[in-house]
Structure formats: C-alpha cells, structure tokens
Amino acid sequence: MASTAYHQAVVTLQSRGYFSDSCLNQENGIASFRLISKGVKLDIALTRRETYCSRRRSVPVTQASASHTTAVPDPVLSPSSGTSSDSKKKSNEAALILIRHGESMWNEKNLFTGCVDVPLTKKGVEEAIEAGKRISNIPVDMIYTSSLIRAQMTAMLAMTEHRRKKVPIILHDENEQARAWSQIFSEDTKKQCIPVVTAWQLNERMYGELQGLNKQETADRYGTEQVHVWRRSYDTPPPNGESLEMCAERAVAYFTEFIQPQLLSGKNVMIAAHGNSLRSIIMYLDKLTSQEVISLELSTGIPMLYIFKEGRFIRRGSPVAPTEAGVYAYTKRLAQYRQKLDEMFQS
C-alpha cells in the first residue's frame, strides 16, 4: 500500500515554489504521500522530526523531504512512446554517482579536518571541475551533499561541466521565511533546475580533539601506531570523536531512508561528500566487511558510478572522460541518454 501511494499520490507544491509537484512524507520509516489542496500550508509534509541513535548519543534533527524533484519529465530522459509501461521500465534503473570532494585548504596544510567547515584549494576546484567533465553525459536528477562547504563546492563546480546545463539549487527548508525567500516564480526556470539537499548525516566523521592538529606533529606526539588506529580502525574513535563505525551508522541510515527511495523511483542521484561518509555508503552498497572497508581508498575528485537495477547496486567504476564512449554503454539507458545529448547539442 505504501509503495502504491508513493507512485500514485501527488502533492501540489506551487504555494511554496519548490521544484516538484509531489512531496514525500516519511512516517515511521514508510514512504507515504498526503494530498493537499493549493494554498494549504505544507510544513507537515515538508519536514519531520527524526532521531538518529548511535551507541554514544541521540541526535534530533529536522530533515527536509527527500522528494523535492522536478515533476516535469526531462525530454532527454523521457521515453519516446510515453506509455505507462515505458515509465515503469524507466523506473527500474537509475544511476548513482559518488564524488569525494577535492583538496581542501586543511588537506593542503596536512591538518585533521573532520567536521570543521573548510573550503577547497585551487587544486580542489580543478579536481571538482574534472569530476564534472567525467560525469557530463550521465543524467542527474537530484544531488545530495553534506552540510560542509567543500562538498557543496565540489557538487556545484562539477555540475557547471554537465552538458544538460541544468542549474543546481540548494533547497532551504529551515523555516517559513527560508522557504518563502527562496521561492522560484517561473515554471520554465524550475524545469531547468536540479534540487540539492544538504544533510549533516553525510558529513565527514568528527575527529574530536584531533581537529585542527597537524597530522605529522600528532604522530610525533602520540606515536604513529596510535594515530594509525584512530585514522584507520573501524571501531576505535579518536579522543571525543567518531569512529568509522559511528560515522557509518548515521550515513547509511540517511542513505537508506532518504536517498535509496529516490533511486527506487527512477531518479538519478549524485552524492558529493567525504572520504569516511562515502566509504560507509560503499560498505553498504558493496556489502564489505569491517576489515575490507578500512582498506578502501577513495581518490579526491574522482567520481564513482553505480547502476541501481532490480534492487541491486552494480559498481561501474569511474567514467574515464567526457569523450569516452565505453562507460556510457554499461546500460542501454545511459547510451540512449548520451545519444540524445549529442543530438540536442550538436552544432
């Protein structure tokens, strides 16, 4: 019943000016919709109170709905026949792109960064742009980032290279004023936007008392072996910080509750986040053990593509370059998307 409601019910968001004609309401872990007539306040449908628990703490958060998506089909993605059976086939496959942010200013200085909000360096900017070129022919309907600026910069810069030229817009649903002030009044403009949802659950793991310390000086002080345990073990946190296990609890919970339903509905999703939060998600996608995940290395600014099909995540590696045809032939749908882009933008 919840699945049927998810696909059939529609919520009008015109009074708020959001990107979609539908709003997903998560109640008790079940996706459901509520029909709301035009002009009715949507606070209940747009936000919810949730508590994510780890073994050490319980953190209440207010989370914006994960269904702020464009209701008007993208002509590049729409099936040619437009039949209901084609739409069902379309929703059976989706692309998931993971990007670790580029080099930050504290990476450059060899400092523990964690949840300190530090911007990218010039090199980091270049890495983000290069990542964008690699995914420039892959459809993106929705973007998720952490609440940290280096991840958000990476997502925004990457999308400047996308051939579809849609504009990523960060959703502001903090309060009534934020919703009102960020309203878009042009329907045509809305169709050319990609909603960006920011979530602290996708943040880098919190490094506690190591944040801001020089990595080499910390190793000299506490010993290389101890620092290696703090950085690379699965369940041992640094002083007053998070372990990878604790980071995984929040990141994977967020992914399964808010992002995976988008993939199930056929939305193509990009996540721009951090080494440890993405490592946690990949652990879930690839069913890695706690020992396998600690040896997993993710390069900055290198996108990783997964295909979500029939309830399974299929790793496809990193697109090589915007002119590389092979990666886009992994599925018929990606090949068709690229072909339509070529047709649209050829001179």
Short descriptors:
single chain, 347 residues, alpha/beta, two-stranded antiparallel ribbon, 14 helices, 36% helix
Explain what the structure shows:
There is one protein chain. This protein is α/β, with parallel strands linked by helices. It is 36% helix and 17% strand. The chain has 14 helices and eleven strands. Strands 7-8-6-9-5-10-11 form a seven-stranded mixed β-sheet, with helices on both faces. A hairpin with a 2-residue loop joins strand 10 and strand 11. Helix 5 packs across helix 6, helix 9 (215-222) packs across helix 10 (224-232) and helix 11 (244-264) crosses helix 12 (275-286). The radius of gyration is 20 Å and the shape is globular.
Offer a quick outline of the entry:
It is built from 14 helices and 11 strands. It has 347 residues and is of the alpha/beta class. The strands form 3 sheets. It has a 7-stranded mixed β-sheet with strand order 7-8-6-9-5-10-11, sandwiched between helices. A two-stranded antiparallel ribbon has the order 1-2. Strands 3-4 form a two-stranded antiparallel sheet.
